Structure to design on (93 residues):
């Protein structure tokens, strides 16, 4: 039983890390960089702010210069994925 629980926790943690790995390409490993030198630094954003931004990119109602790039990036994300990413970004301090 302990092996199953531990395996589940490790798998969940690695999936969460994999989610931000795509974002890290432009935003930096801890969201410390302006993406492609054009966006705001998102490190430590509150969960609600990040969720609103990602959902806005997804439906086309949010964004500036990077709107088109981000729309493509978030199109595949579920609401649960967006929530997970928002929690990860908020945790970067």
């Amino acid at each position: 039983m302990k092996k199953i629980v531990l395996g589940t926790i490790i798998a969940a943690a690695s999936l969460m890390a994999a989610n931000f790995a795509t974002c890290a390409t432009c935003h930096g490993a801890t969201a410390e960089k302006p993406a492609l030198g054009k966006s705001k630094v998102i490190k430590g954003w509150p969960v609600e702010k990040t969720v609103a931004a990602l959902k806005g990119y997804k439906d086309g109602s949010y964004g500036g210069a990077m709107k088109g790039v981000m729309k493509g990036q978030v199109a595949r994300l579920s609401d649960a994925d967006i929530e997970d990413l928002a929690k990860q970004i908020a945790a970067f301090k």
